[in-house]
């Protein structure tokens, strides 16, 4: 499908690897120019260099979502290089602790909210005036099934994603009249390098294959996931590219689950 993103400029946070990199690639393939950011300067520049070799127009900007100055620099770099921002994909996030909720320290709560939620708010606040000047734009926030189906060992992460879903809906209500459309994509059990490593370890322990380990994990932990496999990063990236395009010009305030049916509620 030709989504006609030629000439559009996108910022993708957490764009150096995993789902963020796949999103950047999907937008580039549709003709967009993309600014990717990540905390690790070497990783984000290496990813940009690889994409440039493929003929794409990519700019790398190191940025920590918990640091306002970094986010200001990210927006300034995008405007300096391209003169506009049409698409913002808030993909960057973190999870650093797996524990019962009462064992998660207040500092751990503060940090994960700084990155997963307040960083999104800060960056969005910087981009909204640009989109207002351009009379429109697309904001796509990457959430998680944990927003509505909490994991008992990830209480602080669950809360950041629930807050993000609510924020996205509220943002869409505020700026729909200005043709700034805001949607959320909620992936789950996606084949990232991190998931592959987990499945490989499970397979080695059980003497099985990665695919068998995936099916066992889903049966035991995600009973509503009916496809019996992990999703691909490209399957997540595809819906993001669609939402960034004019094909989605009457869609705002929605949550799109890319989870194989993992969430057990309507």
UniProtKB/TrEMBL annotation:
Q: Which Pfam families does this entry report, sorted A to Z?
A: adh_short
UniProt-listed GO biological process terms: monocarboxylic acid metabolic process
PROSITE patterns registered for this protein in UniProt: ADH_SHORT
Q: Which InterPro entries match?
A: NAD(P)-bd_dom_sf (IPR036291), Sc_DH/Rdtase_CS (IPR020904), SDR (IPR050259), SDR_fam (IPR002347)
Q: Where are the transmembrane segments?
A: none
Q: Which domain of life is it from?
A: Bacteria
Sections of the chain in a coiled coil: none
Which family, according to the similarity comment?
Belongs to the short-chain dehydrogenases/reductases (SDR) family.
The record's annotation in NCBIfam families points to: PRK07231.1 (NF005559)
Protein name, entry field: NAD(P)-dependent dehydrogenase, short-chain alcohol dehydrogenase family
């Amino acid at each position: 499908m030709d989504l006609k993103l030629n000439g559009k400029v996108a910022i993708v946070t957490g764009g150096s690897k995993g789902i963020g990199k796949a999103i950047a690639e999907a937008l580039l393939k549709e003709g967009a120019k993309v600014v990717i950011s990540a905390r690790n300067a070497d990783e984000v520049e290496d990813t940009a260099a690889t994409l440039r070799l493929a003929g794409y127009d990519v700019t790398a900007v190191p940025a920590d979502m918990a640091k306002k100055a970094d986010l200001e620099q990210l927006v300034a770099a995008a405007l300096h290089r391209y003169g506009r921002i049409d698409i913002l994909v808030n993909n960057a996030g973190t999870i650093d602790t797996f524990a019962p909720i009462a064992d998660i320290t207040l500092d751990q709560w503060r940090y994960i909210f700084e990155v997963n939620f307040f960083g999104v708010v800060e960056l969005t606040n910087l981009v909204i005036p640009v989109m207002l000047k351009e009379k429109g734009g697309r904001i796509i926030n990457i959430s998680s099934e944990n927003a509505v189906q909490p994991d008992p060992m990830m209480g602080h992460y669950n809360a950041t994603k629930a807050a993000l879903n609510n924020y996205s809906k509220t943002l869409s209500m505020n700026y729909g009249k200005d043709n700034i459309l805001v949607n959320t994509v909620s992936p789950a059990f996606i084949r990232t390098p991190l998931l592959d490593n987990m499945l490989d370890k499970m397979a080695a322990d059980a003497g099985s294959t990665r695919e068998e380990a995936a099916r066992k994990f889903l049966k035991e932990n995600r009973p509503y996931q009916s496809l019996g496999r992990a999703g691909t990063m490209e399957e997540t990236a595809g819906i993001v590219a669609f939402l960034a395009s004019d094909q989605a010009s009457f869609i705002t305030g929605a949550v799109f689950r890319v989870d194989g049916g993992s969430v057990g509620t309507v």
